[in-house]
Model the fold of this input.
Amino acid sequence: MGIRDISLRTLSGAPTTLAELAGDGAALVVNVASKCGLTPQYAGLAGLHRTYGARGLTVVGVPCNQFYGQEPGTAEEIQEFCSTTYGVDFPLLAKTEVNGDGRHPLYGVLTGTPDADGEAGDVAWNFEKFLVSRDGEVLARFRPQVQPDDPALIAAIEKSL
Done:
């Protein structure tokens, strides 16, 4: 079983996989939070989803409450906040643990990928980004400070499509 086939749950609780969410395209998987200093990145992620969606990119938001409780809301509150505040129209998953003993299997695979400095391991903070190819290869990892419009991220997306 590859990364695109790992069992996931949507924010509404429906079963899914990256393959179902992204179709035959690439996915940018991002752990997100509504009450973080980096939360404004939602706007840029929504822009990436709109700009590159027709070419095969799906942004997948993964709410996570592991970093100082910065995603405390219910599924309904998260959906409402994301759509009304930042115009998020990309898929959101159920709250997920990305580190520690309860780490979701998706992040078990993703965290094995090194960043640009060659560092793999735990997710550092909210808004860490992983680019997954249409073939299920984890192509790149971008740390939380990397903005959605960063030239390196854009280049990696362009190359994956």
